[in-house]
Model the fold of this input.
Amino acid sequence: MSPGPVSAARAVVLAASLWLVAAPAAAQQDVPKIGYVNTERILRDATPAKQAQQKLEVEFSKRDKELQELAGRLKQINEKIEKDGAVMGESDRVRRQREFADLEKDFQRKQREFREDLNQRRNEELAQVVEKANKVIRQIAEQEKFDFILQEAVFASPRVDITEKVIKALGSSK
Done:
């Protein structure tokens, strides 16, 4: 017996129904799992980043103090020149202005060297923090089967933001 028009229509409806049930499940398997990490927040809030900042403060505190003292001396000399300049002898005023100019050049040189050294050391320390963070991010990606983890995004939903997990993992790892 050949299938009639009613049973052919029934077969089409049954096939369509099965497809509608199976299609969402298949589509979900094809959607990549994406995560987002806020690098700026990691470099600010993660334990290794805070430790690096403290290390730099200790390392550069002596030079910073010396610069502050030198700036104070410059200010005193300048105030003395402004206050007593009118009553000073010409040679005394010229000597003090020359002393001020030499000290100011020394101050600017030391300040520039300080900033350059500090920036270089900060970049070295932060590179180590980024390296540690990247290892933790890879571990999380493998454990939770992420397909992508982005570090730069115009927008990221809190649903895909794994920054807090990374910060916690960095805090617990030594």
